[in-house]
Amino acid sequence: MAPPRLTIVDAALSLPIRHDHTLLQHCLAAELAVSRSCRNGNCGRCDSSLLKGRVKLRNGNTVEAPATIPLCIAFALDEVEISNLPLIKLPIFWRCQWQNSRVLVLPAGRQTPPHEGDICAVLFEGSVELNEIAEVNGRNIVLLKPAANTPEVNSVSLITIDAEHEGQYTLWREYKSQRQVVWQGINHVTARSAQTAYQANTCKGSYHIIHDASTKKP
Ligand code: FES
Q: Which regions in the chain score pLDDT beneath 50?
């Protein structure tokens, strides 16, 4: 018998269900950038519509369609159809002023800041450092650990990323006929987000994404 499937109406996707994976994990594995934060059913950021089927929540409750469910703690019990996923509009990045190795300052203006606890990547010219947002205080973004690098200019880009950001893509930088690996072993969503942030911020050189299985280098 064919395994039950998860249908994601918004993305016109049908995926085989893994009963040991939450619906959020299914979406992320399909590279759908679903908004989330707590991953324990409390913040509501991943809430979506259950159109068909039944799910079991991590607290043991069974929920039947139609309902609104937190994808992060929902396991499919049978064929399931979901919609109204809170998809993040990618790419999201912030060009920040460099105050010191732990404090970046958002530009003035109405810009939604990242959230405390978000995993982030600080994008230097030609290299990337992973970090976490420890605190958001007005326009100040406080990083959990001091950055090891210092930017060439007085600003850096920041992107928020998934805990599951690993994958089979590499971001390359090409500058003055030199090619260098900027970030390796990431998924496509993360690579796109970083590439867009670099290119939007008039960094020197051009940035290319390749699949690691590809022998074709940029
Ligand atoms: S990530 Fe917070 S409720 Fe799902």
A: 215-218
Q: Which helix (H) or strand (E) is 190 found in, with range? A: helix 188-200
Cα–ligand 1 centroid distance for 73 (angstroms): 8
Could you give the residue ranges of the DSSP H alpha helices within the chain? 23-29, 188-200
**Residue 43 in contact with ligand 1 by CB distance below 6 A:** yes
What the chain holds in terms of domains, given with CATH numbers, is: 5-83 (3.10.20.30), 93-211 (no CATH)
CA of 87 to the centre of ligand 1 (A): 13
Residue 162 in tokens: 């998934």
How far is 21 from 26, CA to CA, in rounded Å? Answer: 7
The residue behind tokens 């309902």 is: 67
Tell me the C-alpha distance between 198 and 194, whole Å. Answer: 6
Q: Indicate whether residue 39 lines ligand 1 (CB < 6 A).
A: yes
Residues 6+ apart with CB under 8 A from 108: 139
pLDDT at 217: 46
68 lines ligand 1 (CB under 6 A): no
Which residue, chain included where needed, has tokens 């960094």? 203
* Joined tokens for residue 128: 């990337």
Ligand 1 atom at shortest distance from the alpha carbon of 38? 2
The two tokens of residue 26 are 């299914």
| Cβ–Cβ under 8 Å, residues 194 and 156 | no
What is the pLDDT at residue 215? 47
pLDDT of residue 89: 65
